[in-house]
Every structure is written in structure tokens, then in C-alpha cells.
Hints:
The structure holds 2 protein chains of 2 kinds.
Chain A lengths: L6 H32 L2 H8 L11 H14 L8 E5 L8 E4 L4 E4 L5 E4 L3 H12 L4 H25 L18 H13 L1 H28 L4 H9 L15 H11 L4 E8 L7 E7 L8 E5 L5 E4 L7 H14 L4 H32 L5 H28 L5 H26 L1
Antiparallel strand pairs in A: 1-2, 1-5, 2-3, 3-4, 5-6, 6-7, 7-8
Chain B lengths: L1 H25 L5 H48 L24 H32 L4 H24 L4 H14 L1 H6 L4
Helix pairs in contact in B: 1-2, 3-4, 3-5, 4-5
Amino acid sequence: MSVAIEPATVKKSLSAHAAIGLIAGALLYIVSLTGTVAIFYQELQRVEQPNAPEMASITPEAVQHGVEAVLASEAGKPSTTHLYVHLPDEELPRTAVTTDTQAVYLAQDGKITGPEEIAWSDFVVKLHYTLNLPTLVGITIVGILGVMMLALAVSGVVAHPRVFRDAFRLRARNDGGVGLADWHNRLSVWTLPFSVAIALTGALIGLASITAYGIAADDYQGDVEAVYGPIFGEEGEADTRPAPVPDVATALVHMAREYPDVRMTYAILHDPLTQGQHVQIVGEHDKRLIFGEYYAFDADGSFEHKVGLADGEWGQQAAASTYQLHFGTFGGLPVKLAYLLFGAALTAVCATGTYIWLGKRRRRGIEEPRIRGAWHGVIIGTPLALTITLLARFAFGNEFPFAIAFWIALVVAVVGGAVVMKRKAGGR
Amino acid sequence: MPEDMLFLAGTISAIAAVLVLRFSWARPGRSRLLNAAGWLLLALSIAAGWAFAGAWGVSIISLWAMVTAFVVLAYAAWKSPSAKRKPSNRRAGMLPEAGEPFRLAGRLTTFLLIVLAGMVSSVALAIATRWISLLIGASEADANVLALFAAPLGWTMLAFLVLMTDSRKRQLAIIAIPVASAIPALVSGSPL
């Protein structure tokens, strides 16, 4: 396919493509690389803490015991606003309970076995989500990077009118610039559906907060939760008077009886130990992109309603589909491996773009050893810094300051790369 | 079982589509028939994926098509002869050549237009999208989700259009249009 686009438009689009790529390139590379690693978040947890108890399933009674034990362990402390029970599944056959202040594993009988220690896996995910910045700032910046990735896709297609016609031409054995450009363009074209899906869902997730602030300011008197209420369901009315532990077991029994085809992934307690408490079970549906449906129960475990993520308004279904589509968790290991392949390709596209630009300038006689060295630092330094933090996890344990170590190592790599390349250039 | 056959047919169709396009685009002359056959097979595979399991089916089929293309590309890389062709030196115009002014203030203004003004403009577009959706009868959930999608998509187009435009006035107009479109929503309040 060849599209007739005005040469001036093509030139302008290439300029736009380069501008976005050069400004956002380093962060896009970091986000792409960490996203590719984070595909295996569940598997990484098992590697990071191999001795945690594993099970194919857990009984409702054991979950109830576990919830009671965890809530009892927090007696006398400020009560948690939410309590999440991760129920064992194929990818992560572990039962973990997370509150506002702690996360522990349960044994098959519901006894607490010890703390969840997956700080490195969580660090990688947080690096991908927020670049280790405060949540609102970080997730918005990553959302903007998603927008930039979409703009790169649009400008890249417009800047290369033969991009589809040449979609299979790969002159790999050329180190003069043709090979690099071919790798960049071919990988870009064939990951285009993947890149657009990843960038759009990432931008949506990242920019949802500020967009919701805008909508809330316009129409919900500043109540951001009210924007999400019609989509993901409303939080119940708060009533802080004390109440006994809610009956999670009855809710789980109801789910197993009434929805045998639904895979339960989480039990969520809202405002536990208060009169306003209620229980939600998250259930995955087979052959769906949605992360699950919310099944709501009262504190006695009586079923109340479904939210509608599986069969409600199309907007609810679309919103609930963004997460699995972004993280590649909708089809087991084969889909994860495909995401690994395309994620690696996308990371390579981010890396090669700046090298192509530097190569063109070098061929025109403009040498920029500092920029080239700094870019080497980003490309080599990011996986190196991630590897250093992983090694530190096994050497120094769960409490190691992974984010600080990562960013220091990366800055050293970037500055070091610039200095070394400048010295090399000066020595010639 | 017929559903599984449908999925299998979709998968085969997706793989065949990539191979037909590969064959078609490798020919010295353009073949409309082969091109059409390739795109038709791709469309059929997506239709089969949708019929099998909606968006999930389309996603899986798309992945298989992309994996096939990667295999074909890997083969092309393996078989690739040493390229003699000179690489492209098309200027991207991102940084000045020797002797050209750097125009730091102009570059910074463009950056701020895309990032800060673009953010305000895309949120305004989201508000306008939601307001119009509610006016034409969309449910509150659908309208809110449309707004959440409108912000990143709108921002993408704004960033692209601003960078494609040399005139500062035209750039400001591009940014201002979504803001203006949100005025009725901001003035009249909720249609709910």
C-alpha cells in the first residue's frame, strides 16, 4: 500500500516525529522496558519469594479464618479502610491478604504464615506506572508518555509513505544506517496494533486522574469518586460504628454455587469492622478482556448485585478491559510471551529512533559525542540498573531502597557515557 | 466445537493474510488482486475473532497475525544480503545545523503549548465530549468513559497538529478550539 502524501507534509511529520521522540525518548524507553518486565509480575513474585505457601485453591472457611486473623492482628491500630484477599489462581497460586498497612500470606488452612516480601516486583511496577514519583504526578507523566507514543505512531506513519509497502523489507546486514532504519521501521509497523493498544490504554489509565478531576470540577462538585461510580460502582455509605468481622465465607460459597464458571480472583472488604462494611468478590470471566466483574455482598454474605463490568453498559465493559489489554494478562502464558516479544520490539524501536537521528547528523559531519554517550547510558544503563537492583534484592533483602539505587545507577550510566564518549572523541 | 472451528479458521486466515501480503508486496509490480486478497483475509480473521469471543477474540487473532509477521521478518533478516544502498539523510529539523539559530524560546513555547496547554485543552475536550454524549442520550457510565477516552485521543491529535503547523497563531487556534467547545458544558452545567 502506498499513500500519496504531500512531500511538505512528510517532511513536517518527520520533524514532529523526531521532536517527540527526542524529547520523550529516554522516558519512553524506560517505561517500555519496565512494562515488558512487568508483564511477568506474578511470576516475578514467585521468583522473589519462592518459599511462600502455594495452593491450587483455598476453602471459604480458610479465607474467613485468614481475614479474622489479619484483622485481629491489627487490633488497637487505626483500622484499615480496605482489605484485599488475593485468591489463588494458575498464575499466582498464593493466598495473600493486604490491608492499608501490611500484606501477609495465608496457609491452606487460613493461618498467617508470614509477610509478603515482593518489594522488587512492586518497585518495577511502580517504576512503570509512576517513574517512582508521587502517584498523581508520576501517573500523569506516564499518561502523557502514552499520548506521545500515540503521536509518534501517527507521525511515523505519515512521515514514511512507503511504510506499509516496505513492511517486509529488512536489510538487516548493514551498519551504515540502512539496517538500523529498517529495524526501526519494520518493528514499528508490525507492532503498530500492539503499540497503539498499549499506548492508548496506558494514556487512558495515566490521564484518568486529571481528566476525572476536570469532569468532577465541572459536574460533580469536585467529587472525583463520583466520576468513577457509574462505571465501577459506588462506594457504600460510611458508618463508622463498630461491627463484627463480615462473613466472607458465605459470599464465596454463594459465588461457587451460583457462578461456577467464574474464576474468583479477589475478595475485597470495604471499611471492615464498621457498620458500613460490605464485601465484593472479583470474578474473572473466560475469554473476556475485562479484569473481572464486581459481585457485591452485604456484611452477612448475602448477595446484593453485580456492578455490570461484564454485561452492563458498553462503557463499563470498555473501561474494565483496559487493564488486561495493557498488561497482557488475558490469555495465559502464550499471550504473555507474545507481549514479551512485542514489548521488546517496542523497546528496541524507542532505542533505535535516537540512534537513527544521531547517525544522520554524523553523516552530515555533526558529531555529538556527549549526546551519543548519554544515549548509550540510557540504553545500557536502564537494564543494568534494573539488574543491579534485582541482585541487591537477593543480597540485601526486601528493605533495600530499590528506587534510589536504580535512579543513581542510571544517572551514573548517563553521565559516565557522556564523559567517556567525549573523551574518546577528544582523543582522536 | 463449531466455535473452536471458527477460532481456528480466524487464526489460519490471519496467518494467511500476512503471508499473502508478504508475497504481494515482494513483487516488482503492484497486484491489486493480491493486495485485496490479503486485506480481505485479515478482515475475515478479525470478523471470526469477534464472532468467536468479541474483543478478546479480536485481540488474540491480532496477536497471531503480528507473531506471523515477526516470523516472516526474522526470516527476511536471516536471508538479508549485505546492503550497499546509502542510508537516508533526510533532515528531521530537530536541532539546527552549524550556523543556524537555536530558537530556544520558540522551542520552549511549542513544548509548553503541547504539554501544558495540550493538557488543559484535552481535559476541556473530555468535558465537552461527556456533555454532548449526555445530551444525545448516552448513559452516565458511557458518557464518563467516552470522556476518559477523549482526553488521550484528543491530546494525541492536538500534539500532532501543533507540531505540523508553523504558524503560532494557527497553533493557538488548534489548542483553543477544544477549550471553546467546552464552554457550553461549563456554562450550562449538567444535562443529567
